Amino acid sequence: MSTVPQASRLQGVRYDIRGPVLRRARELEAAGHQILKLNLGNPAPFGLNAPDSVVNGMLANIGSAHGYSDARGVRPARVAVAEHYLARGLAVDPDDVFLGNGVSELIVMALQALLNPGDEVLIPSPDYPLWTGAVNLCGGRAVHYRCDEAAGWAPDLDHLAAQVTARTRAMVIINPNNPTGAVYSRQTVLGMLDVARRHGLLVLADEIYDQIIYEDAVHHTTAALAPDLLVLTLCGLSKTYRAAGFRSGWLVVSGPRADAAEYLEGLELLANMRLCPNVPAQFAIEAALAGDVTIAPLLAPGGRLREQRDHTWRRMNEIPGVDCVKPAGALYVFPRLDPEVHKIRDDQQFVIDLLEQQHLLLSHGTGFNLPSTDHFRLVFLAPVAVLDDAVSRLAAFLGAYRQ
Asked: Is the pTM higher than 0.70?
């Protein structure tokens, strides 16, 4: 019998947070089990929906959305994005904005236009694994720089600089960070930009959680701190505006263009090849950015996300052998299992066993390209009562679990 083999380019590509663990969860659901899913940062299943004004902005323009748009996206949305960044100290033109079917598509496009086989990209560890997977898919090599848990998961600048080689083409900055929830200080971002400056690297700034920050944390827009560097800033509606299913994202090009003209021509070529982003969802961008929509009430004391973060973080640290850095941003906790208490050799098997015994679905730390097997990620989007139940299940499981 003939077979259809997988393309060899996929051999080094992993996306474990939607891999074997999720497949096992689907099997258990098909067998009739109810699974508590705290593995993905998807607001809608937990009742956190897009604001009415954002939805209405899309619906009001549906009659104008039947045809293809400009390959970069509809102009009113690109104008709104440019004005959004002007308020953050970054002067860009609407023609510097590319809209996409979510940030994920734009990440792949940016890397496809950049990488030749063997080119290297610096990516944080732990990371949002799409970055590592996309680099490998595009023929490049992901080189991970360490983030220091003892320093609140801030990037280790010395380790970052030591990873640069003659093949390094770009640096990825994920701030606020997924999965750790770290929000980088101005000094840290400037230090990372200095490495990029010394070595002539393209900077890819993933800022999808830029408005989801807690207490006194401050997010510093990367591109605004480096007008002399070519920076691609990526953001969208999925998290702050709770519209993940709209798949509305943007990429903003800033900094000197002269030496990057060929690269930008390639980026535009790829934008043209996909014809255009989903047109109806593009109209939600103008409504989101040009209006008075804010997530601040959810993040303030007494706000839902703030309460859920605080409760989850406290409960995690009450479990024997578990400690957790308090996330300053984003939607996740990333606890550590003390290796002297919980001897986890295979953390993917750990979350599968948890899933099968407690019907609780989490994500394992090595799925985020962390080299050790002693971390996991939990999404705190669910109401406090649900999160309380989840942590209780985890505590009961850990009390008896052995590998």
From this structure: yes
